[in-house]
Every structure is written in C-alpha cells, then in structure tokens.
Amino acid sequence: MTLELLGRVHKELSITGHAFYETILSISELVNRKVQIIRLHWQASVLLQQIDDVTAKVGQQIATQVSDRLLYQSHPDSLVGVMDQTLADAISRVQKLKQSLIGVDAQIRELKIEMVHQDLLSLQRDLALRSAGLERLTVVRGAPAAGQPLSALPQYSSAYVATVLRGPFLVAPSGDLLFRPGDIVVLIGAQAELDQLVSWFTGQRPLTTSLTRSA
What structural domains and CATH numbers belong to the chain? Predict the structure, then answer.
C-alpha cells in the first residue's frame, strides 16, 4: 500500500513538474518574442533616423554648392554635375536604407502574428475544457461572407466574432466591418453552432469542407 501511494505521488509530481516546465518554457518564448520586437523597433527607428540624416545632409550640400556658385561665379555646368552626383549618391543610400527598413518591418509583423497565434491556441485549449470551441476561418472569395458587414452574420445563441486578422493587424469587430477575402475570422461559441458558420465564410459545406485555417 505504501509503495503504491509513493508511486502515485511520484507520478503526480512528475506530471506537475512537466506542466510547470512547459509553462516556464511558454513564458520564456513569449518574453523572447517581445524582446525581439522591441529590438527590431529600435533598429527601425535607427534606420529612419539615418534616412533623415541623409536627406538633411544632401539638402545642406546642395545649399552650400548653390551658395558657392553665386559667391564665386563658378561655371554652371560644373555645378550641375556635382549636384547630380550628390543627388544620385543620396538616392542610392536612401533606397538601401528603405530596403533594410522593409526587412525589419516584415520581421516585426511575423513575430506579432506568432504571438497572436500562440494566444489563440491557449484560448482554444481553455475553451475545449469548457465544451466550447474556437474557429479560425479564412474568408474565401465568392463565399457569402465576402463583402458583407459583420451585422449580416447569421445569428446564433452563443457564436460570435472575437476578432478579425487582416494581414498583420487585428481588426476590432464592429457592425459596419466588411469581411474581405483573405480575412481570418476568429469565432467563439458552441462547436455545433460554429460548424454551421463554416459555409458562410468558406462557401463549402461543414461536413465535407477542408477548412483553410491559419496555423
């Protein structure tokens, strides 16, 4: 009896320890993502400052060259050549900085989407424990929902739209919100009622559809 009790205690402690480890790991991943986002925002601000610096510098150079030309009566052709080269160098530098900025912006969006998906997965697990469900349905072009306002959503007792993912952005659900093809609609409610809404967003029957869901 004592050995059996010790075995159960050991098993419970092992399960609890594993759950605790998973929780710590999840929190660590979330913190790392937030730190990465902060670092990328700082990097983006540095790039924007560099673009401003290049713009200010080229403006100052052109003003100086024009002033010198008026002061010393230098040949206009030589001035035009110098100004053209100055502008060309500045444009090339700004284009490179903009490409770097686009890359940083894409990384920020990707990390934010990962955070949203992680939150949705956690919410989905919690809802499953309460016999409810969470669906992420992509609005398909040609489906009844495409181009329709949120107020046109078929009414059910428990199902409702929690939020809409439009690209990297979260769109708050409001009555005048128009569903667009590609929108990822997050719904919460009783699973049976959610199943009835599948065809409205995807244009396919609930029992035969292969849903296009976000990861």
Answer: 2-122 (1.10.287), 132-202 (3.30.70.1450)
